[in-house]
Each structure stands twice: as structure tokens, then as C-alpha cells.
Amino acid sequence: MATFADIGVAAGMNILFAVAFLVAFAILRLQPINDRVYFPKWYLKGLRSSPMHQGSFVSKFVNLDWRSYIRFLNWVPDALRMPEPELIDHAGLDSAVYLRIYLLGLKIFVPVALLSWAILVPVNWTNNTLAKSEATDELQYSDIDKLSISNIPNGSLRFWTHIVMAYAFTFWTCYTLRNEYAKIATMRLHFLASERRRPDQFTVLVRNVPPDPDESVSESVEHFFLVNHPDHYLTHQVVINANKLAKLVKEKKSKQNWLDYYQLKYSRNQSRRPVTKTGFLGLCGETVDAIDYKTAEIERLTKEIAEERERVKTDPKCIMPAAFVSFRTRWGAAVCAQTEQSRNPTLWLTEWAPEPRDIYWDNLAIPYVSLSIRRLIIAVAFFFLIFFFTIPVTFVQSLANIEGIRRRAPFLKAIIDIPFIKSVIQGFLPGIALKIFLVLLPTILMIMSKFEGFMSVSALERRSATRYYIFNFVNVFLVSVIAGSAFQQLDSFLHQSANYIPRTIGVAIPMKATFFITYVMVDGWAGVAGEILRLKPLIFFHLKNFFLVKTEKDREEAMDPGSIGFNTGEPQIQLYFLLGLVYAVVTPVFLPFILVFFTLAYVVFRHQIINVYNQEYESAAAFWPDVHGRIIFALVFSQLVLMGLMSTKGAAQSTPFLIALPVLTIWFHIFCKGRYEPAFVRNPLQEAMMKDTLERAREPNLNLKSYLRNAYIHPIFKNDDDDNEDEHIDEKIEENVLVPTKRRSRRNTPVPSKYSGTSSPSLPDVAPENPGS
Amino acid sequence: MATFADIGVAAGMNILFAVAFLVAFAILRLQPINDRVYFPKWYLKGLRSSPMHQGSFVSKFVNLDWRSYIRFLNWVPDALRMPEPELIDHAGLDSAVYLRIYLLGLKIFVPVALLSWAILVPVNWTNNTLAKSEATDELQYSDIDKLSISNIPNGSLRFWTHIVMAYAFTFWTCYTLRNEYAKIATMRLHFLASERRRPDQFTVLVRNVPPDPDESVSESVEHFFLVNHPDHYLTHQVVINANKLAKLVKEKKSKQNWLDYYQLKYSRNQSRRPVTKTGFLGLCGETVDAIDYKTAEIERLTKEIAEERERVKTDPKCIMPAAFVSFRTRWGAAVCAQTEQSRNPTLWLTEWAPEPRDIYWDNLAIPYVSLSIRRLIIAVAFFFLIFFFTIPVTFVQSLANIEGIRRRAPFLKAIIDIPFIKSVIQGFLPGIALKIFLVLLPTILMIMSKFEGFMSVSALERRSATRYYIFNFVNVFLVSVIAGSAFQQLDSFLHQSANYIPRTIGVAIPMKATFFITYVMVDGWAGVAGEILRLKPLIFFHLKNFFLVKTEKDREEAMDPGSIGFNTGEPQIQLYFLLGLVYAVVTPVFLPFILVFFTLAYVVFRHQIINVYNQEYESAAAFWPDVHGRIIFALVFSQLVLMGLMSTKGAAQSTPFLIALPVLTIWFHIFCKGRYEPAFVRNPLQEAMMKDTLERAREPNLNLKSYLRNAYIHPIFKNDDDDNEDEHIDEKIEENVLVPTKRRSRRNTPVPSKYSGTSSPSLPDVAPENPGS
Fold this sequence. Notes:
The structure is a homodimer. By secondary structure, chain A is mainly alpha-helical. Chain A folds into two domains: 4-196 and 369-681, no CATH class; 205-354, no CATH class. In chain A, the strands form two sheets. Chain A has a four-stranded antiparallel β-sheet with strand order 2-5-1-6. The first copy, chain A, has a two-stranded antiparallel sheet with strand order 3-4. In chain A, helix 10 (159-194) packs antiparallel against helix 27, helix 16 packs antiparallel against helix 20 and helix 24 packs parallel to helix 28 (591-611). Chains A and B meet through helix 15, helix 16, helix 22, helix 30 and helix 32 of A and helix 15, helix 16, helix 22, helix 30 and helix 32 of B.
């Protein structure tokens, strides 16, 4: 049991870390050499030029202006200054709504914290249960416990305060959640209604086109929609399986990078031509001249790519039974996306086409039966991942301990016995095995989601986020609360009665308060402050800059702006919601730590979204129902835990009062689901019709067909025309300048999305060829 | 523990009962006087005239033809003879598919029974565990137990046979279920596609029309659909709140019946004019001349009805914010029903309009928030109904026992002490309290569903069926398996661990086999045979015939054909599926009893559907997903129970093999849900377009507007024109004669649906007035 002093020391250390990170950031961001690391978003938007072009040699790399150091904290007001509508224009609705999650945390927990400090802390403090039990017993207690529910004697009437507070907190949380859901639904509809013409407004993705012996997929699609949507069908674009081509292009790019590196190396030191080996990773095999070898390789690949490109365009096997079907009006597309087409509900599946850059092309051709089998496999695999992931980790750990190494590799004995090496192995290796697994976890979850067959990057990230949350809940929260691995818990929960489980957790909760306070400070305070420092991109940028960069274009590609990373970020925030709601009634001391986290994270991520992160797709806040649902889950969980705790506290007569809480909360969730969720899933016809009518009045002669012709071709075919595209992009971007600036655009390449390569949704009229027809 | 002999006696008795019922039925149905009781369906279709019109006086009432008594069982082949397509024409798809539930039972259990008798019975029989334990222990056992899994020694390798069989049965059940789902989906689509033009194909029910200060509901609806479905909107019909009017009309009808009764009484005995009392139920109050009094009452009501009718038509308060909107094409209606109209997803809710006679008019105007609160209330109420229903029953029982009566009503002491009265009270009263509750249960459940706000009778019945099944499962099945009331079980399940619950049930299952065998015989065999006798309608018909009937029309109204009663019938069948699946592996002796039930019930209900039941609505087998889901639930439950049983049998190493079964079964359910369920929920555009095109080619000049004008007016306004309607109805019916007949139609009144009164969907062009516009 930690005392206030212990907590104070931990808090001091973490505040020190956080401040150190923030100061380091404040200094590093002012150096011109780091400009592309800390302001990549502005480069990507073409609104910032490198400050390395003007001034003396030294001032190109180091900021010598002492005045700017004085104002080293002024990024905070800068980050907060941009109003929300401008933020939506600048970084998209997804980012703006993502920030609102932190705001929601503040909205929920500021009144909750005030109320619980005003009422619960005095109620808890003015008892002496713990002092008494210490006097008679050997029980250790701390000042923090004196402020918590543990200090109330068994069966005391004071527990009614906690029950009333549980009602008040539940009511307040639900009220805030409802307001937020309504607000975000309105924002989403407004965003969808006020945005410019986009190809996905007119387009529907059709999957599982049935094979027809007499017709090609393209003909089959055309006939089907001409018959069943005669007044609305406009055109379509079949999906081509260009996965192999994409792989070849990627390989070529990597070889090109190596070639650049060797050429740069040679140009710096002309005395010796660089060499490489032909085998695996350049580590084994014959030694050859690196530049010649890579050049030959690239030539071979170029030829192969050209061949593959021809094959893909002509071979009917590469045409997948899926197509993007475009309609004359938004109304027609809305109708087709929401209705069932065929009497066999697994054929002619229609759904809104995702944004072109949001599409995950590899999954477009999975048939229905395969999809449902994949879902089963992943469900089983995920179950094992949650409950048995400790097995391989433990195995690695058992290999990596001193005795294990000594037994398996006796020849290392001499080295191991050096005290320093020994302590490193004992102290670090077991932790590292677990750490590596946890670092790999988001990737593993993303691979699982991809295997499951989702069509768009946003859906992949949402599914991964759900899985990550479940993993966190079981393997971070529950494992910390009740000692023992997840599997041991599963086993003991199976053998415990249903009303004993919340009791087990409930009893453990107050005892773990100090642990979670430390967790919040390490992961929440220092971790968030570390995020703004961007140490990894900083190092990688300078390494690339030194070894690879020759042109401005290379330098741009060396930037790694990153993205919000919904699949890892959101589940972490949710853990704080869970902790806050669980501890709100039990240990009110906990709440200020959560508040500091939400405030800090809000400021930091607002800064990052404005200045750093690249928006990879725009799903118009489609993730909000997930966020809402998980907070509701945390709320219900906290109520069950409180019930369990109360029943051990001799306040069992309160159970009937508490049982109404989860019932009402779940009902509230169902109500919200019906009232607001459709706005995130379907597109109302009224809106579509309104936009159609407006557009018809404004642009009666619009040639929609040519506008849509190339919107949905595979990005690999768009890359062909990078060079001609550039000027168009610049034009487009200058049209859309939203934040006034005096700087000229210097952007050279479009920003690649992490998954689908380059693909600019606003550029349908530049790529000249249409491989689908 | 019952022996074979005990079972034999019980079987013999129940067979005797069943045969007695069947013989009584065979004799009664041949009497002309009962013709309307046993063949009402044919009267309703207008295809049968009363045999009482020809022949001598005696032969009008009693069948004197001895030859017909010899062939007294020939209703069985008659019932089986009608082919399924004809049955669908005759009694609707709902009835035909309902019969297929029994067939499905046979399809599943015949191979299962054969396999288990061929393999499991020998495997169980050739052990001597029970004989041994009897020798050493005091354990009683019977021959039936020797055939069950109880006879296998603990930890025996023979349990692998049971595991393999569990896989085989699961596989076979799923295979059969899938085939059946596919078949019924096809039947439904074929039925919907091949049926004649019906108003509901073109019509969508719109609810929650937002109030508009400047426009009436009718104008608001028209403008909204003219704007948002400009090419497809045709006309609409606002919903009028005529509940009060309907109540008045009903009251008038009841008074009219009494008047008829008194007039008949007076005409038979002219010496004394009948008198009645004006108070409650004619039991108290002033004594008056009955005929004059009722005539005056009817006159008053007639006036009130006329006033109310005027008020309803003009008062804007009676217009509810709901409307039936009709479209030019089926395609337009399909689109509108499946899409979201407004940005607020709780306004302008659209769904397929039910058939006119399927509509439950009272619920059309419930707003969204009220609906979701009602759902919460009913969910809580249903929970209490399931787990606490014994409290009022026990209370009544405690009042109704000897000691209770003696204490509370000492003046009855003399009567109670008569031995005969005493034994009656002791033997019957407690049972009667429970029985009355169980008889009332379907009505209570139906009231709950009505309160919940469903729009159509079919939906009400489906929801009631689900509730009834849950009630049966908890309060019949579980309560029988584990002694103790449902509430005691809930309590003990809350205090038991999750893996102990299936074990508790699993251990009890084999011991209860004989109880359930008796249950099947009493409820299944004798009960079904009793159904065909129709004792209650028989008595009521003759009573009405004697006291009320004056004209042919009255006699027709005195018929009570009844209906399938999906809300009570289907949950009962499901109980047999549950029992069959649970006992298939454990006690194979059970299966033949189930098979007899399914065979007998199939024949009986086929006969009833052909000759008796009146089809109240046609939902085109919309209930099948429920049926499928409940069988899947029974399958998963049986697998869990088997796992529990195995783990107590020293065969715990089999758990990993068995755990795959529920996982695979649930996956199968999800697969089927995705693959087939949409066919029961949505209407594919392809089908709609096909029918539209055909119709346009066949009848290019169809005046759809006049066809649809009066389809969806409240039945109360249609009744006005009963007399003019009749001839049209006859015409229509003769067009649609499907079963060849030589008899002339004698039908005089249309058949009222139990809930919504008369409303003939095929009669849109006869009612001249349109109260909605």
C-alpha cells in the first residue's frame, strides 16, 4: 500500500519525464533541420517550404534566434487556437472527432471528480475503520485508502451515499454520451452534405457477381443494372486483381532505394565501387558490383512489370467478380447501396463504395462462404490469442533465463558468468520477450482483420481497435486486478459462480488503485509527452536524409508523418475511461490523474493532428458507434463491480437498487443505437435528393460520366502518370487552401496511403486509361 | 424409476385415450348437424353447403348411412392426399410451412432414431454397470436405464461412440435444417413472385411523420414523397384513430346478439316477455323489459356511432402521424421500404405494409421514444413473469387449501368437513389455480406483445411465440429436470460456477427420461388427438345455434373455425425438438415416442388446416427464421448438457472434442442467418422489377390508383358497405376457385379476422368512400 509520499515521488518523476520530453520537443522543433519531422502535415498540404533554403550555413541546421527559445511553450496556444470547423477542413472529420473523445473524457470526468471530491472524499475520510483494524490487526493501510471506500465500516448506512453517487455518475455519463452522439451524428451528416462532389457519393461497390458462362463480368454487371436500375445506372468499373503487379512495383522501388544509396556512397567516395552479395539480404552468395547488379535487377523488374501490366489488362482470370457501379444521381446510389438486389442474398451484394484511398484492394474478391469460414477461423484464433498468448512468451522467457542458456549452450558459460551480462540477461530478456510481443500485437490484429476480409482500411482499423480493446481489457486490466494469467482467470471464472465473479473483481479493485495511478502516470503522462517528441521518426528521417536523399522528392518521401492510428490509440483511451468509471465511486483520489491525462493528451494530439499526422482516409467519423459502445461497456462493468464490492461490504440490501443501473444503462444503449447509429451506417434519401437537386440547378451540364470514369481504378495503374498528375494536384490544392498562408506550395509527390498506395480521390480526370472496359 | 411395464401401461392408457378421441371424432364428423364444426374452412371458402337442407328430418341431424361409418378412418388419407401446391392455394403459405415443421421433425428424428437404435442401444445394453451397482448398492434401476448412457461404466472407452454419434446427429440436424431453410426461402420467394397483384406489394407503411405547424399530416406526407420519390410516388392514405368507433361498433354488435336472443326466446314462448336488469352484467339494478331495453340501447349506440364516425372523419386529432404510402411500381415500394428517408433516423420510418387484414390498427401511432420505453418495461415484466409467476399462484394455492379456508372462513367449516368436498378441494383446487394461470398465459403474452407496439398480427404472434418458448423452456423443461421453482433455479445458477450448471442439468437428464416419455404421451399423443375432436367449438356452436341463430348469416357467424395459433402451437412443437435432441444421445429409447408424436400431429394438423382453420393473415412464412433459431438453440443446449454429463462420467478428456460442436453449430447459425434470412426480411429489387415489367406488358392501361384507393382504410369504415360488397366478394372468390367443386357458394359474410375485424384485401374497388382525404 503506497502512501501519499510514494505517489508523490512517482508523480514527481513522471512529471519530470514529461517535462523533459516537452522541453526537448520545444527545442528540437525550432531547429530548421527537424522542420520536416515536426511539421510534415504542412509540407504534405504544400503550405510550408523548407526553412533550410535561406540564411547562413549554420542557421540552415540550427536555430540561432534566442527569442524563439523564450517562447518555447507557445505551441500549446497554437494547437488550441484553430477552431473546429477549420480543423475539419484541415485534417478531416475523423481527426476532429477523434479529438472529441478526449474532450468527452473531460466532459464526463470533471463534474464527476468535483462531485466525488466534494461528497465522497469527506464521507470516506471521516471514518476510522482502517485505523481501528490496524490497531487490532496487522493490516497495512495508507492515506489513499483512507479516502477510498475501504475506510467505511461494514454495513454502514454511509454506503447509501455511494449508491446515490453511482446513480448520479451513471446519469451524467449517459447524458453526456447522448449529447455527444447527437452532436457527432449532426457533424457527420453536415460533413457529408456540405462536402464537394466526390466519386464515392455516386458509387456502390458490388461484390459476388455470379459467374455467367455467356458473359464477361463487365457485361453481366452492365446488364444487371441496366435492367434493375434503368433510370439511374450510369457506368461501372470492374475490379482487377493487380496484387502481383503491386508486389513487383514495390520490389522495384526497394531496389531503386538501394541503387540510390550505392550511387550516393560512390559519389562521396569515388575510390572504391560499392559491392554487394547476391544471396539472402545481401549477406551471402557471390560478391558483385552493387551499382551494376542493382541496375540490372531494376531493368529486369521494369520488363516484368510491363509484361504483367499487359497480362492483367487482357487476362480474364485477373478480373474479379466485383465492380464499382456508378449512378447518375446520389439518390440512385443511396437506393442501390441500401437495398437487396437478388433473390439469393449472397449474390450481388451492394454497399457504399469507400473513398478510393480507403479501399483495401486485396480483399475485394472473397466469396460469401469463404468470408464466413474466415470469420470462424479468426474468432477461434482470437480466443486463443487472448487466453493462450502467454504460452509462447513464457516459452521464450524460459529459454532466455540464465539457467536455460547455461544448459542449452554450455559454450556461452564464460560470457554469461560476467556479472554485468548476467544482470542484463536476468533483468531485461524476459521483459523484452513480452515487450516484443506487445509491440507486434497491433500488427497481428491487423493481419487478422485483413484475413477476415474487410473492404476498407477504416473498417480494418475499427475491427482491430475492437480486438485490441478486448485484449487490453483481459490482459492488462483484469490481469492487473486479479493476479494470474488470462487463462488462469478464464479457468477460475468457469469454476466460479456468476455472482462471485463481480465480487472477486470488486474486492480487488480498491487495492489496485495505487498500481493504476502509477500506470496512468507512466503510460498516460510520460507516454503522451513522448508521443510529441517523435523520437523514432526523428532518427529515421535523419538516417534516410543522410543515406538516401538526393532530390527534394526523395526528402519528401523520407518524411514519415504517421497517422492517428485509430486501431491502437482509441483502445488506450478507452482503458482510461474504464479506469475512471470503475474508480469514480470506489477511490475518488484516482480521478485527478485521469483528468491530467485527458487534458495533456488533448493538447498534444491536437498539435500532432494539426502539424504532423497525415490523414490516410476519411470515414466521416464512422467509428463513433464503437467508441460509444465501449464507454457503455465500461459503465456497465463499473456498475457490476460496485455491486460485487457492496455485497462483500455487508451492504447486500443495496443490490436491488444497484441492479437497476445496468438494466437502465443497457436500455439507454439500445435506445441510442436505434436513434443515432443509422446515421453512421446508411445514407438518408432526403439528403441525397437535396444535394442532387442543388447540383442539377447549379451545374445542369455536368459530364458526370467523365468525372467518374477513372475514380475507382487500382492505384497501381494511376502511378503510371505520376509526373503528369503533379501539376493538376497543385492546382487542386491551391483551390482548396483553407488556412491562409503566404508560402508557395512546394509539394512534389502525392501522399501515399499506408495500404493502398497513391490514389487521389479528387483527381479522376487525369489518369488517361481505363483498364476495366 | 419406471420399468418397461410401467411405460407400457402408460402408453396403453394414452393410446386408448387417443383412439377414443379419434373414434369420437370419426363419428361426430359424419353427423350433418356437426358439419359446420368440422368443415368450417369449406364454408368460409363458400365451397360447401349445409347438408341439413336435403333429406328427411332425422337425416338432417344424424347420419343414417351405415357405410360411411365403416370408412370412419378415411379422413387420414384424405388429409394426406392434397398436394402441397394446392394446399398453399387452399390455406396459404403460412399453413403449408407450419406443417413442414412437423415434417422437419420427422426428417431429423427418423434417421437419428434408426442410427441410435442400431448403434447406441447395443453399446449401452451390453454393459452391466447398473446391475453391478444394484448388487453392491441400494440404487434402483429399470430396463429403460439399461438402454441409456447411465449403463456405461465411468471412464469407459465406449463414450467415444456417444461423442461420434453427437457429431453425426449435429451434422445431420444442421444438414436438414439448411436444406429446409433453402427450400422455404425458395417457396417464399416463389409465393411472393407468383401471387396476384396485392395492395401490399405497392404500399409502404410510414410512421413517425414529424408534426408540421403549417401542414396537415396528409399534406406533409404527400410533399415529402413527391420530393424524395418523385418518379415513384402514387398516393397515400393517412391512418385514422378509430379505436373508439371500433369499440362502439363492437358494443352494438353484442347488444344486437342479446336482442336476438330475447326475441327468439319471446317468439318461442309468447306468454311472457323476457326481462333483464340494467346494472352490471344484467345481474343487478332495475328490472326492465329486455327487448325494449336492448332496442333502445341499440338505437342510442347507432346514433353515437354515426356521430363518432363524423367526428373521426373531420377531427384532426384523430389523424395519426402515420400513413400508408403507395407507389407506381413494386420497385418503388421496395426501395422506399428498405431505405432510410430522413437524417433523423427516428422520423419517417418506413417498412413494408403488412397485408390489410394482418394490420394491428391500434399500434400504428406510437412514437419512437415511447416504443423503446415500452420495450424496457415489457422486458422487465417478462423477467418477473418467468421467475416470479409462482408467487401469485402459490398465494392462491395457500388460500385454497383446507386449513386456509377453515381459518379464513370459519362459517364454511361444516361444508368443508364433508369428506367428498374435502377431497375435491385438496385434490383439485391447487392444481386449478396453476392451470388457470397456464391457460391465461398466451393471452398475457399477447397483451405484452400488443403493449410493446408491433404493427401486425403476425409480428405479435411471432413475438408471443418467442416468449412462450422461453417460458416453456424455463418453467416446464428446466423446472421438471431440476426440482425447484424457476426462481430457486435462477438463484442457484447465480451461485453456481459456469461449468457446473451444464453438469447439474446433464446429470439430471437421464433420470428424467421416463417423466418426459409420459409427458410426450399425455401432451403429445392424447392432446393432439383431442385437438381434432374440437370439443369446445362443438359445444359452443350448438349453444349458439340453439339460442341465437335465426338466419343463415347468424349460423355462419356462430362457426368458430379457429386458426393455427402460431403463438401457442409452435413453442409446443419446439419443446419436442428440444426433448428429442437432448435425449438422442443420452436415452435413445425416447426417440420412438417423439416420432409417434410428429407423425400423429402432422396428420391431424394437415386435416385441420384443410378442413377447419381459418387463415387470419398471410405472412408468407415470415416465422421460419424463428423456428430455425429455436432448433439451433435446442441443439446447442443438448451439446452443452452432453458435455456436462460426460464430465461427470469420468470422460472429461472428451470435452475438447465436444466443445467444437457448439462453436460449429453457432457458426452454422450465423452462416444461415446471412445466407437465407434476408429473404424473409427484405424484398429483392430484381424480383420487384421482374413483376413490374411483366405487369406493364400484360396490362399497360391498369389504373393502379383506383385499385389502391381503399385498400388501407380502417376496417370499421369498410363494414359500412357489407351488403354491397357481398356480390363482389362472391365474384372474386369464384374467380379464384382452386379446388374443383360442384357445389355452389353459399357464403354470405366475409370472415372476420380475430383482431382487426372484416377487411378483405381483394376488395379495393367496392368501398366508395375514402375517409382519409
